[in-house]
Amino acid sequence: MYGLTLIAVLAVMGGVIAYIGDKLGTKIGKKKLTIFGLRPKHTSILVTIVTGILIAATTLGILAVASRDVRTALFGMEALKAELASLSQEVSSKNLELETSRRELAAKTAEYTALSDKVKETAQQLALISRELDEVMAERDRTAAALSRVQTEYAQAKGDLSQAQQEIKTLQTTKQELDKRVAELSTAKTNLQQDVDRLNELTANLKKGIQYVREGVVVFRAGEEIATAIVKGGQSVEDTQQALGALVYRTNLAITGKLGIDNNLEVLWISRHDFDEAVSLIAATPEDVVVRITSVGNTIYGEPVIGRIDLYPNRLVYSQGTVVYSQVINAGQSAEQAEEAVLLFLRRVNAEAVKQGILPDPLQGTVGSMSGAQLFETVNKVKRYGGKVELTAVTKADIYTAGPLQIEIQVRSVL
Length: 415
Fold this sequence. Notes:
The chain is of the alpha+beta class. The protein is built from 8 helices and 11 strands. It has helices spanning 2-31, 40-66, 68-75, 77-209, 237-259, 272-284, 335-356, 372-385; strands at residues 218-220, 225-231, 268-269, 289-295, 299-300, 305-313, 316-318, 323-330, 388-395, 399-400, 407-413. The strands form 4 sheets. The protein has a 4-stranded mixed β-sheet. It has a 3-stranded antiparallel β-sheet with strand order 8-9-11, with helices on one face. The chain crosses the membrane at residues 42-66. InterPro entries: DUF3084 (IPR021435).
């Protein structure tokens, strides 16, 4: 439709231009007009030529304005040719690529076909493997269940085995303890038998070597102190045995001297078990130990003295010059009242010393003694002051657990 309209427009404009040219040429011919000094005839021809040129130029101009293809044909033909050549070359290249792609497609198609066959074969193998896997998994489940039962049974058996092993260990421990106890009892039996033999031998020697009278004379009372000594602790067992043995020997000599009999007789009997236990305790103690030998029971003249060993740590209780006890008392006016007040004060001093750790005499409960002269002097001072006086007991030296307590009594009048 657009082309028809364009053609109609060109026809109308060509006709109009031709008509105008004709009219113009006719008019120029009639009037014999000249252009550029030409003859009228030539001028008319020139007008006709110009009119034809205008028709052609107008036609091309209108076509160029109205159509892009005309403009391209008029002004871009070389570029169009170059582009066409390029496109032709590109088409050739694309054709080659297409041919290559076709060959590759054919190869890929063949490869795809082969892969499809391989996939089918693999799918068949996968189906077989899946069935086999199902069978294996079922077998595994059955095996796992059986393993679980076996593990349960094994755990139970292991628990029974552990219990049995624990019982065996317990029985072995009990057996070892019993064996140890049997050995201890055997050793104790041997020691006791040795003690009995020694005691029988001692009794026989006393009967042979001592002329005694059975008049019920008690030589030592039960709990009476026979000997007291300080033994250094922390030494070797051998040195401790030697030191304790020497103390027992000296105590035996003191007893024979007191009884007036042969010094070679063994009149002091101490259990071997007690002796060995005392040695072990002294050797394990890092400080000095007070060893006190006392009579186990009442000993009649002519009988062996059965002794017991008691151990106490020997520690410093009072330093020299320490006040043990101080008290204000009413001395009264008479010597009897003064003496009674001093003796009561001494009993209180004794009780305070025992409380602080000094070992008292087992029978009398005293921790020391005062000479008659010192007691008489103290009583006279108290009597001389009369009324209220302050008595102060001061230690005369360092006092240890073994004692005895040595004091000086200071008397001061209290107004």
